[in-house]
Write a structure and sequence with these properties.
Layout lengths: L1 H33 L6 H21 L4 H28 L4 H33 L1
Helix pairs in contact: 1-3, 1-4, 2-3, 3-4
Length: about 130
């Protein structure tokens, strides 16, 4: 039962990640054409990542259970969705050389991987709460 549930969670996470990345990328391109700027998100996202890091360290030493993992996965998913918007906006507007595009692609790749992992945490924890 666990392996069937794990495979389903991975499949759901992959599909959700693909849909979210495509829709957020399209939204960012649309917003860039309209003149919106997402550079203001940088400091907020950095602070949010620091809060997640502290939460993860606390979770290592004092495990709080599946609900806290589900909360962590949900919050991390929201934060990495915003990182995808922020990094895509920087890719569109800010970068101009080949090296900068390489760093931007690596940054987007990490955002997508982290979104997938946080969605997996969220869905895996919520699937075991249902049983």
């Amino acid at each position: 039962m666990v392996s069937l549930s794990t495979g389903k969670v991975i499949q759901e996470s992959a599909i959700l990640t693909a849909v979210v990345v495509i829709s957020l990328t399209l939204y960012t391109f649309w917003a860039a054409r309209r003149g919106y700027d997402f550079n203001f998100l940088g400091p907020f996202l950095f602070a949010a990542i620091m809060v997640l890091a502290v939460f993860a360290i606390i979770q290592i030493f004092f495990p709080l259970g599946r609900i806290s993992i589900m909360i962590y996965g949900g919050l991390a998913s929201i934060i990495f969705c915003r990182y995808i918007i922020y990094d895509t906006d920087n890719l569109i507007k800010r970068y101009s050389s080949y090296d900068e595009y390489t760093w931007a692609a690596a940054s987007l790749y990490l955002d997508i991987i982290n979104l997938f992992l946080s969605l997996s945490f969220f869905l895996f924890s919520s699937s075991f709460l249902a049983f």
